[in-house]
Specification:
Two copies of one chain form a homodimer. The first copy, chain A, is of the alpha+beta class and about 475 residues long. Chain A is built from 15 helices and 18 strands. In chain A, helix 1 packs antiparallel against helix 3 and helix 9 packs across helix 11. The first copy, chain A, starts with 8 loop residues before the first helix and ends in a 15-residue tail after the last helix.
Chain lengths: ~475, ~475
């Protein structure tokens, strides 16, 4: 408890009277519950506050500002890069209790939600109106809209619908000094002033704390149909992906599994896979029931020139669910096989996928670290999984060098270090590899405009200077 | 020529040796050609430079920076808000000669273009690959990609494909001190650092001079089919628009004409229109030939509940072109009827269109200034045209008050002052009505990060302080 000294007595007093003992948490057990995210790293905050209203968020941030206390905003803590961890201590500000769906406008196709609304809960609510909000991270059943906005989250649907930045019309946020701002609005067009909405989306909670979002909604497809298509090589699969992108309607998902991922599925599941398959695509189409199966078959017909070994007819319902389940089983299988999995979500132009795979195979061979790759091929966004044992110092010693080689490979292929996970603490030492110095300097200056004392979500995104 | 004194002799000398006499223009006639845009306002720059390479842009801006000379970047000068006018004198920097299409990647569906490439020229080139770049401002045959990026341009297709910000993957730009920066990249996903690409898009040339853009491309629809649908009231037309937005595939355009626009067409064209029609929609669908007509008819069937008076069967080719021609004829007709037309491109949520129209009719009645309205109903983006005679001081005296009422009406309806034209000089005194003070202050500070001396495109966007 001795680190508690960083929350001075008067501040603790004010927070207690503002939030009560139930929402200003200082016990070791309570603080521990907010110390983790999907990185597996642990940083225990000095205290946790559970805000319920934007006025409380204003008051909390003003207190932090006046007393120079570092503060880390947090949604559900499902992030992959440490963005919601209090890595420099201080206050952890949970937005999870701000979970009201404030308004759903069917004629104008927007929803106004508080930051703590769970993505999946919103989807359930929208379902009744035949609408949905397209961003679909794999954590959608638990992650919050505030987290999605902070990280510019995405999932398989991005190939057709784009990412979070494409589905946010406006925001309400609070600056570190407690001032509330509004950006954007309720219209699908608007060009008055700088695009502050898109500046906040993906800023990982380092510029302001988002309290509300106005989300643009889409018509929910009546049906989704899924096919599995296996190929003898990554080259053929990648060429098929490029071709599928030119179809008259975009697929709603083009997921990819490499040879090592298929080997795992062969070993650990009952999925029947051709022996020569070295790559597999999961092709999903979505739309009205009428004509959808024909569309899927037309797409499969269109990629016959890339010599698929085998393909399944388009299926929906439980049959599709079992294929998605096999895809989702990869993560637990990896966790079972290796004590630790390091997951990097790099992205390259689709045509570069074969070179990325060849390069990754070489790195894996030379380092003797198994690498398993799968992900959102339609966007060239691949989850590169290094399987390691943290108890083996020889292997762990090689990890930084291997990651450096992976990142260098990706950048040499005109790619980006992160397609959807973000930077957080995990990639801050590498972003200068991708961004030029002048652009990085501008970003640091913009951060200072919003947060001159560096109190908001410290230790994230920008390299240590 | 006496204002030429603001370009000091040594700078003129350096520009001459850098660009030659042919591309450093100081004659009154040459300067006059760069003094106009679509506002009809005239601001003669002190000199004009025609850059051909990004290295020249770097050198020009560095000179301006070192000698504190104001500089206004310009594409084709087709803007509606004065964004490309040298309103505070100084140097006018034309990007029109930087018009190379550097690369078109068919498998990765992007194009790399210089800022001066004409939108329509790019489309012609992309046509051969079955691709297009969706932003479609009405000036597309002359406007440049750099101008589109600066203003976040859009047109009728925005209802389906979105606006310029949705179709830019990355940028190359030059800061006022001559430093080159790169933002984004060649992938359709990427979340490394702040979204500098979207910060520059729509910043109206006030932050940096964009020299190159990496544009995301879409598959060009095989066919477009257009129907005219007339309604007895704006209410019914607006309700039909909301319904059309929920169709299984988005229309590629939902254009709107109000009663006063229809009156003009009755009087000035041979278009047959039902006598009771007080609103008309132009509904366009786009896609593969197979099933497209059925889709259009299904949409028209779906809006029968809103009691259209009449509708034309979906047509393409020359028949569709003649309808678009009638829509396009509105602007010349307005110019013929009134010595001056003041065109404000406001936007409201679609469901608020009836209230917007009622309010505009009241303002027109009370001010005795005719107002004609048409525009992109699918986005709630309406071009409000005030018809005035600049030689009539009584009328002109009422204009500022009328504009104030229009803007107040739009904001009361949760709208925005500009959907696609931007702020420039024309709306800078009104943006504080829409943006809150804290957000405006942040924007001013961001402007200072990029351009501390306020040399780049001065007199635009932000209110006089």
């Amino acid at each position: 408890m001795k680190r508690m000294t960083v929350i001075p007595e008067p501040v603790a007093g004010e927070l207690t009277s503002l939030l009560g003992r139930e929402r200003f948490l200082t016990s070791a057990a309570d603080r521990e519950s907010y110390a983790w995210d999907n990185t597996g790293n642990r940083f225990v905050p000095d205290a946790v506050v559970l805000a319920q209203t934007r006025e409380e968020v204003c008051a909390i941030l003003r207190l932090c500002h006046d007393h120079r206390i570092k503060v880390t905003p947090r949604g559900a803590g499902t992030g992959n890069v440490g963005g919601a961890l209090a890595v420099e201590g201080g206050l952890l500000l949970s937005l999870q209790r701000m979970n009201r769906i404030v308004e759903i406008s069917v004629p104008d196709r927007f929803a106004v939600v508080e930051a703590g609304v769970v993505n999946g809960d919103l989807q359930t609510k929208l379902d009744a109106y035949g609408l949905f909000w397209p961003p679909d991270p794999s954590s959608s059943r638990t992650c919050t809209i505030g987290g999605n906005v902070a990280m510019c989250s995405a999932g398989p649907g991005a190939v057709r619908w784009g990412v979070t930045r494409d589905w946010v019309l406006g925001l309400e946020a609070v600056l570190i000094d407690g001032t509330q701002i509004r950006t954007g609005g309720r219209t699908t067009k608007g060009v008055v002033g700088l695009d502050m909405t898109r500046l906040l989306v993906g800023s990982e909670g380092t510029l302001a704390v988002v309290t509300r979002a106005i989300l643009k909604l889409a018509s929910k497809p009546e049906q989704r149909l899924l096919s599995r298509i296996s190929f003898p090589s990554v080259e053929m699969a990648a060429a098929a992906v490029s071709h599928l992108l030119s179809a008259r309607q975009s697929p709603s998902a083009i997921e990819f599994l490499d040879g090592s991922a298929l080997d795992l599925l062969r070993r650990e599941t009952t999925l029947a896979l051709p022996a020569q398959a070295r790559a597999m695509l999961l092709l999903e189409v979505a739309g009205g029931v009428s004509g959808l199966k024909e569309l899927a078959l037309e797409m499969i017909e269109g990629i016959q020139r890339f010599k698929p070994l085998e393909w399944s007819p388009p299926v929906d319902g439980s049959e599709a669910a079992s294929v998605w389940a096999a895809r989702s089983a990869l993560s637990p299988i990896l966790k079972k096989l290796a004590p630790k999995r390091i997951n990097e979500d790099v992205v390259v132009p689709v045509s570069r996928l074969p070179l990325l795979m060849t390069g990754l195979a070489r790195i894996s061979d030379e380092s003797k670290i198994p690498i398993v790759n799968f992900g959102h091929a339609g966007n060239g966004n691949i989850h590169v999984n290094l399987l390691v044992d943290p108890r083996d110092p020889a292997i762990m010693g090689r990890v930084p060098g291997v990651l450096d080689r992976v990142f260098r490979l990706v950048l040499d292929l005109d790619g980006s270090l992160s397609g959807e996970h973000g930077v957080g603490t995990q990639k801050r030492d590498h972003i200068a590899w991708e961004l030029d110095q002048a652009c990085l300097n501008l970003q640091r200056e913009i951060k200072k405009v919003f947060d001159p004392m560096g109190l908001l979500n410290p230790g994230k995104v920008w390299p240590r200077s």
